[in-house]
Amino acid sequence: MTQRIKHKVARWPMAFKLLAREWRSGDLNLLFIALVLAVMTVALTGFIADRLQRGMEQQAAQLMGGDLVLRSPREIDAQWLQEARDRGLQAVPTLEFASMVAGDSGFQLSAVKAVASGYPLKGGLELEKDPRTQLQDVSADYADSAGKLPASGEVWVDRRLLTALNAAIGGEVEIGQKLFTITRIIHKEPDRSGGFMSLNPRSLINFSDVAETGVVQPGSRVRFRYMFAGDLPAIDAFKDWLAPRLKPSHRLLDIREDRPSVGSALDRAQRYLQLASIGAVILSGVAVAMAAGRFARRRQDTVAVMASFGFAAPVMGGIYLRLLLLLGIAAALCGALLGFILQMIGTYMVADLLPVHLPPAGWQPWGLSVGTGILLLMGFAGAPLRQLRNVSPLRVFRRDLELASPSSVMVYGLALFALVVMIYWYSADARLTLWLTLGLVAVMGLSAILTLGLFRLLKLVGPKLPMRPRLAVRSLYSHKQTALPQVMAFGLVLMVVALVALIRNDLLASWQQQLPQTAPNYFAINIQPFERQDFAARLDQAAVKRSPLYPIVRGRLSGINGQPARDAVPDNAKEDNALHRELNLTWRSDLPEDNQIISGRWWRDDFRVQPGAMIPLSLEAGMAERLNLGLGDTLSFDLAGQIVTGEVTNIRQVNWDNFQPNFYVIAPPGVLENMPQTLLASFFLSDEQRRIVPDLVKAFPAVSLLDISQILAQVRQILVQVTLAIEVMLGFTLLSGLVLLLAAVKNSLDERLREGALYRTLGASGAMIRSIQRYEFVLLGVVAGLLALMGSELTAYLLYRNLFDLDYSLSFTHWLVLPLSGAVIITLAGLWGTRFVVRQPPLQVLRAG
C-alpha cells in the first residue's frame, strides 16, 4: 500500500523529470513540433479569421449605418430607445419618404430622408468639397460630414437632383409646404438601401423639419429606420430583448437581411473560413496521431525496463500520459503565441492591400487554439500512449514481443469524438458539423476498403513488373498495416487541400458572375411606352450594355383563392410587405436570366391565353414560402381598379444579388398589355459613357435615372476583403497539409531504416534503395490522389447542396491533376523525409532494431 501511494505521489515529479530527459534525447521533437504547428496553424487561422471576420462585419455594418437596424412603418415606443441607451447602445432614428421637390425650373420625385443628431452611427456621410464641381468631373474631392447634419431649413441633395432641377448651391427648393436652402451636395451615404424609393435622387433634411413640410400625414407611406450601435454582446442582448416585443410590421435587420447581396457573400465566406480552419485542424490532428504513435512505439523498451525494476506498466503509462499533458500545454502556449506573432507580422506586411483597417482580435482565438491543442492530444494521441500501460517486462528479453495494437474502437472513437467536438466548437454550426463529419467518415471508410483492394491488385500484378517496382509493391503489401494509414493520411492531405481550393475557386467565380466589372450601375424607371424605341436607340447608339426594357404594371395583391389576401395567409404573414404595397408585375414569353424554375413548368414561347381561360402566373419562391402559396393557388390583383385573377403554374428561384431587374410575379404575353404601364431597364455606363447622362435627362425628362454605382462599390469592397480572407485560409491549409505529409513520412521511418539496412547488408546500393523508395512513394501518391479525387468530389457534393448553395458539377481537371500531383508531391516529400535511410550504418540500425 505504501509503495502504491509513493508511486502515486511521485508521478507528477517523475513526469517532469522524464519530460526533461526525453526532450534532451530528441525523441519528443517530432511530437512537439507537430503539436506546435497544429496549434500555431489553428491560432494563426483563428486570429486572422477573427480579425478578417470582424473587419468584414465592421465594414458591412457601415453599409447599414449601424450594427442593428429596426425598420417600421410608424414610430416605435420611445421606451425601446431608452432601453437601448440604458444598455450602453447608441440609437438614432431616420425617416424616409417619397416627395416631389419643386424648384424654379420644375419638379422631381425625390427620396427624402430626415436624420437626427448622431447619424450615421457607422460609416461616413461623404459630401463634395467643391460644390461647383460639374457632373462630368469624376475626380472631385470629397469630405466626411464629421457628424454634421443639415440645419433646420437646409437641405443636402445629391448631384442627380441638382441636375434634374437645374439648381445650384444656395438655391431654394420646396418640399411639401416648407422652403429649404440647398447648402451641400451628397456624394455617398453609408446606409443607402437598394429599394426603388431610396434609389430616387436624395434629399437630406433635419428630423425637426418633417412636421413643417406637411408631407407626412396619418396613412402616409413612410419608413422609419432606427439604427443601433455598440458592443456586440450588448447588441445581441438588446436584440434578444426586443425580438418578442416586435409586431409583424416591424423588421429587425442585420447585414444579411438589410443587404442580401452582401449578406449572402458574408454567409458563404464565413462557412468557407470555418471549413478551411476545420480542414487545418483535421490535418493537424492526424499529424499529431502519427507522431504520437511513433513516439509510443519507441518508448516500449523504456517502459519494459522500468517495469522490470518494479514500476508497474500502468504506472508508467500514467506517467507518460502526464508527460503528454505537460508537453501539450507547453506546445499549445508556444503555438498560440507563435500564431499571434505571425498574424501580427502578416497583417502588418499586407496592411496596404487591405480595404480597411483590421480591428484587433478578441480573446476567443486564444482559448480556441489552446483548447484545440489539448483536445488534439487527448483525442488523437491519447489512445497510442495509453497502450504503454500494457507493455510486458518480458520485452527486455524478447524484443519480438510486440505491444498489441490499440483497439480500433478506442482509437477511432476518441479521434471521431474529438473531431466532432472541435468542428462544432470551431464553427458553432450543427449543419456544417453534421455534413462534414458524415462526409469524412464515409470517405475514410471507403478509402480503407479501396486502398486494401488496390493493394491486392498490386500484389497480383507485382510479379509481372521489373525488379525495382516489384520490390516496391512487395514492400507496400508486406507492410500494409503501416502503408494503409499512411496512404489514407496522404489522401486526406490531398483531399482537404483540393476541397478547399475547389470551393475557393467556385465561390470567387460565383461572386465574379454576380458582380462582373460591367454589372449594371444605372436603372431607368418610368419610361413611357411611346419612349421605348427612342430610349433604347440612344443607349444602343452609345454602345451601352443594357438589359431588355421590361414593361411594368403596378398592382396590389387583393385576393388569394377567392378570399381577401390578408385572411388567406398565415398569421405570421398578415403584415408581409407584399400585402401592403403595390407590386411590380410584368410579362414575358421566356424565362428571365438568373431565374430557375423549382416547381411547375414555364409556358411555351408562343403561348397565348385563350379568352375565358385562367391566366397562368409565375411566382417568386420567397414570396410563395412567406405567404404559404403553391401550385394551383389563385391570385387576384387590383390593377388600377380592374381585378385580374390568375393561377400559379410555376415557382421561380430568383437571384436577387445580380443587380438586374427582378419580379415577384410574371404573366405570359397577352394579359397585361392593355393596362397602364411604364418600362424599366438596367444598363452599365463606363466613366467615358457617363457623359450621355445629361443628354438622357434632357431628352427624357420624365424618366428617372438611378445611379447605383455607390452601392456596387460598397459591395465590391466587402468582396475584396472576403476574397483576401479566402486566399489566406487556403495558404494555411496548404501549410497544415505539408506538416501532415512530413509526419506521415516520419511515421514509417523506423521500418524504412531497417528495410534499407537489410537491403544494404544483402549488397544493394544506395541508388537502388532510393529507386525502390521512389517507386513506393509514386504508388502511394497515385493511390492517395485517387482517394482524394473520390473524397473531394463526394464531400463537395454534400457541402455545395447543403451549405454553400452552389451548383455542383464534376471537376474533370481534378481527375488528372490529383493523381499526378499526388505522385509528384508525395514522392518529393517522401524522398526528402527518408534521405537518412542510406546514410545510417546497417549494423547500427540492425542492433537497435
TrEMBL record:
InterPro entries with a match to the protein in the record: ABC3_permease_C, Membrane_comp_ABC_pdt
Keyword terms: Cell membrane, Membrane, Transmembrane, Transmembrane helix
Compartments reported by the entry: Cell membrane
Residues in ABC3 transporter permease C-terminal domain copies: 276-393, 728-842
Signal peptide: none
Record flagged with keyword Lipoprotein: no
Domain of life: Bacteria
Predominant location: membrane
Record membrane topology: Multi-pass membrane protein
Regions crossing the membrane: 28-49, 275-296, 328-351, 363-383, 403-426, 432-458, 483-503, 718-745, 777-800, 812-832
GO CC terms of this entry: plasma membrane
Protein name as annotated: ABC3 transporter permease C-terminal domain-containing protein
Species name: Oceanospirillum linum
